[in-house]
Structure formats: C-alpha cells, structure tokens
C-alpha cells in the first residue's frame, strides 16, 4: 500500500474507495489490526442521515405535544394544581393560588403560540418572584410542582451561579438544567419553567440591607440573568464538556420560558415596615403606626411588599421589572408545624412509621410528643426545616436498636422523649390496646 513514507492509503470499508491519508481526519475510523475503516465522507453522510432522522422524530414529538395541549389544559386547571399542592404543603394558600394560575396561564400561552401567527397579539409571560421566611415551603412547593407538570421544569440554585470568568457555574447552567429536564429536546426546553432558588443570595451587597462592601460578582450574575429572563438566545455546552472555542454549543431561546425565582429575603420585612412608616408619616397617619413599639409581625407585613422594597434589598430594577407577579409565603405557626408532622402525604411521622414497619414495629407518637416537637421547632426559628432534625435525634437510638430482633413490637414516643431525651420504650405488640395514642395512617 505504501508508495513512499509520505503517501498512505487506506480502503474505506463502507464505500470501498481508496483514500489517500493526509491527516487522521481523512479516515477518522481506522483499525490497523483488521483494516476496518470509514472515510470522512461516509461519516458525514451517516451523520446527516442520523441528524435528519432525529429532526423528523423531534418534529413528530413537537406536533404530538402541541396536539396534547388541550388535554394538558383540561387536566391542569388552577384548582386541580392547588389541590395537588395541598396534599404536600400545609397553609400558604395565597402562594399556591398564584403558582397554580401562573402554570395554567403558561400552558395557555403555549397553546396560543401554537395556534396563532406570531405577528398577531403576543400574550406576555408573567414571571414570578416568591418570598417567604426560611423553612416555610418555597423549595418544597416548587419541587412538588415540578413532579406534577407536563412540561419540563428545572430548579437551579442561584447562589451557585457566578459571573462569567469567576469560579463556579455561569448563569447558562439554569437553561442547561432545563434542557436536560426536557430530555434534550430544544422545543420542549423553550417552553419549560426555570425555578431559580436562593435568589436573594445574589442581591447586591450594596443594597440597603447589606454592608457597604463592593460586590461586582453578584451584580454581574444579575446582569447575566436579566438577559436570560428578558428572552434571548442562550448558548451552552453539553454537560461535562469544558467551555472552549471549538466546543459545540446548544442554543436555546428563552423568550417563552417561564421564570420563577424564590428566596427568603431575610430582613425584607424591616424594609417594608420602614417604608410603611414613612408613607404613613408623609400622609399624616404617622402617629398611629409609630405608637407601636413592638416589631410588627412578619405575616402582616410580607403581603404588603412592593417592587421598590426588593430593589432596596439589592435586586436590580431591570430584573424586578420582569418579575411582575409577587408571591408571598407566610411564617408558619406552631399549629402549622404540628400539621406538617403528620398530615402531608410524605409527612415525616408517616415516613418513620413506614421505615419501622419494615422491621415489624408499630411506631406511635403521643399527641403531647408531637406538640413538643412543634414547640421545639418554633424556638429554633427555621420554620419547618428543623422538624426533621428534632425527630431524627429521638429516632436514632430506636432505629439502631430495633433491627436487632425480628419480634413484632411497638414503640411509643412521648413528650418526655422529645423534651428530655428519655429513651423511647420498646414494648411487645400485645400491649397496644391499652394505651391511647395518635397514629397516622
Ligand atoms: N408549608 C409546608 N408544608 C409542608 N411541609 C413544609 C412546609 N414548609 C416547609 N416544609 C418542609 O420543611 C422543609 C424545609 O422547607 P423548604 O426547603 O421548602 O424551605 P424554604 O422555604 O425553601 O426555606 P429557605 O428559604 O431556607 O430555603 C422541607 O422538608 C419541607 O418539606
Ligand atoms: Mg429553599
Ligand atoms: Zn467511505
């Protein structure tokens, strides 16, 4: 085969042509052991063949999706979405309503887009900003919503995002996450929902709520996100691929993506209170408000939040302007926490009962014990977030000890176990009739 040391020729096993090899790209596939080879031309042909097939398939999927929108609309009416959320999230009715309507409208806008000429009237999307104290259910609500939806939704932690050039993930990661949630279908990605969690963490540090230290990084992240929220083409590389000039990119237009952002915005209630006080003073009702020395309660303030408070907090006005729907969640009461322990479909108490039942053990919580847990959680001031940890503390020893035998037994958690770390009693199953306790099945 070799004429001289320069000229190398191989036969393409596919098209049978003899190819002179100038570089490895002339015959990208070549196995010297067997001589099996495929030439550049053939590889290009095969690639085009597959790409065309994929495109046809994607188009068919998209057509099917557009046709299914009527069904989707029929089964995702706002009250149905809310009822679904009710199974998992206690209280927060206002937030549930807002989100249910936002999602339903998103579907409607999609249907409108498929059935109308883009030159006709354009139904604008209503991006949502969610605020509420730590552990009140923001992240949990969005996670449950994501499971219900017929369109892709991806949750991205905004606090992990950095301005291009800084260590960390670029803002495009939010769109990339959605792209993977949409099984790499661009069309579906472009109609999905992006939830940016911990959004308050990218507030400008120079915002009134923060110290004076300069903070160009966060402002840069906001600028990056602004472009995405405004709608435009976002380019990113496939997962795991490093960004470099030759890396192939995926392009997604974010114009129709619904953005929901959420965060605790710690201290926002003080900004609201301060504004209300000045408002009241300037129109002559100052005395009434100022008389009250005690800090007004979070729940009575949070619903009064206005865009200017969020700007004051350190979010740039351009972003606030593109998040027209403000969704507020309330601080949970001790009663709410009590319900969270046992009522939701995936309530922590139910989960422990399920776990122990696998070891033949019936787990019961005395009513007072549940009150004690809720009370302890309130003291920790992290909403429902601390419930799990408090339960885990009492359950650890039990969960360690129980599997040592297969005997059917019952375990009763009392108030004393919660308050004084007394070890819960493990009893034989027969005693179960005598003691009146709460069960949640
Ligand atoms: N209203 C609620 N109903 C049921 N469970 C709740 C509720 N609020 C919080 N939880 C539970 O408490 C835990 C923490 O809630 P979540 O992560 O949603 O808090 P968050 O509002 O996102 O707070 P943060 O601002 O600190 O992120 C979750 O396990 C969640 O299931
Ligand atoms: Mg959260
Ligand atoms: Zn060939």
Question: Short description, anyone?
Answer:
The protein is α/β, with parallel strands linked by helices and 441 residues long. It is built from 17 helices and 14 strands.
What this model shows, in words?
It comes from Megamonas hypermegale. Keywords: ATP-binding, Chaperone, Hydrolase, Nucleotide-binding, Protease, Zinc. One of its GO terms (biological process) is cell division. This protein is an alpha/beta fold. The chain folds into three domains: 1-73, no CATH class; 76-328, 3-Layer(aba) Sandwich (Rossmann fold); 334-433, Helicase, Ruva Protein, domain 3 (Orthogonal Bundle), CATH 1.10.8.60. The protein contains 17 helices and 14 strands. Helix 2 packs antiparallel against helix 3 and helix 8 (268-282) crosses helix 11 (307-313). The longest helix has 36 residues, at 40-75. The chain is globular. The termini are far apart. 33% of the residues are buried. The model is unreliable at 208-214, 286-293 and 432-436 (pLDDT under 50). Bound molecules: adenosine-5'-triphosphate, magnesium ion and zinc ion (ZN). Adenosine-5'-triphosphate (ATP) binds next to helix 4.
């Amino acid at each position: 085969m070799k004429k001289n040391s320069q000229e190398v020729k191989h036969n393409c096993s596919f098209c049978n042509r003899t190819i002179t090899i100038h570089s490895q790209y002339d015959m990208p596939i070549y196995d010297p052991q067997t001589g099996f080879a495929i030439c550049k031309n053939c590889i290009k042909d095969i690639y085009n063949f597959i790409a065309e097939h994929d495109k046809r398939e994607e188009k068919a999927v998209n057509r099917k999706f557009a046709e299914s929108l009527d069904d989707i609309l029929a089964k995702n009416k706002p009250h149905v979405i809310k009822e679904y959320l009710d199974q998992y999230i206690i209280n927060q009715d206002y937030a549930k309503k807002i989100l249910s309507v936002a999602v339903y409208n998103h579907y409607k806008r999609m249907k409108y887009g498929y059935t109308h000429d883009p030159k006709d009237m354009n139904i604008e999307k209503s991006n949502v900003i969610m605020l509420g104290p730590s552990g009140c259910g923001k992240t949990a609500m969005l996670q449950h919503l994501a499971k219900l939806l017929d369109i892709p939704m991806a949750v991205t932690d905004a606090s992990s995002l950095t301005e291009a050039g800084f260590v960390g993930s670029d803002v495009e990661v939010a769109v990339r996450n959605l792209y993977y949630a949409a099984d790499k279908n661009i069309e579906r990605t472009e109609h999905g929902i992006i939830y940016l969690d911990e959004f308050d963490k990218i507030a400008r540090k120079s915002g009134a709520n923060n110290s004076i230290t300069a903070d160009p990084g966060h402002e840069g992240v906001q600028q990056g996100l602004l472009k995405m929220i405004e709608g435009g083409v976002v380019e990113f590389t496939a997962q795991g691929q490093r960004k470099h000039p030759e890396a192939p990119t995926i392009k997604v237009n974010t114009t129709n993506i619904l953005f929901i952002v959420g965060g605790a915005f710690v201290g926002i209630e003080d900004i609201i209170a301060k504004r209300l006080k000045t408002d009241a003073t300037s129109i002559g009702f100052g005395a009434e408000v100022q008389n009250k020395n005690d800090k007004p309660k979070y729940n009575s303030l949070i619903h009064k939040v206005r865009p200017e408070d969020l700007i004051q907090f350190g979010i740039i006005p351009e972003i606030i302007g593109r998040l027209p729907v403000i969704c507020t969640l309330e601080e949970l009461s001790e009663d709410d926490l009590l319900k969270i322990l046992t009522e939701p479909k995936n309530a922590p108490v139910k989960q422990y009962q399920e776990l122990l039942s696998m070891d033949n053990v019936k787990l019961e919580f005395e009513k007072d014990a549940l009150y004690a847990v809720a009370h302890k959680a309130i003291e920790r001031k992290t909403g429902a977030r601390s419930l799990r940890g408090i339960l885990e503390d009492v359950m650890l020893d039990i969960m360690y000890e129980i599997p040592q035998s297969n005997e059917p037994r019952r375990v009763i958690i009392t108030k004393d176990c919660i308050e004084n770390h007394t070890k819960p009693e493990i009893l034989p199953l027969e005693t179960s009739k005598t003691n009146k306790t709460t069960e949640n099945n």
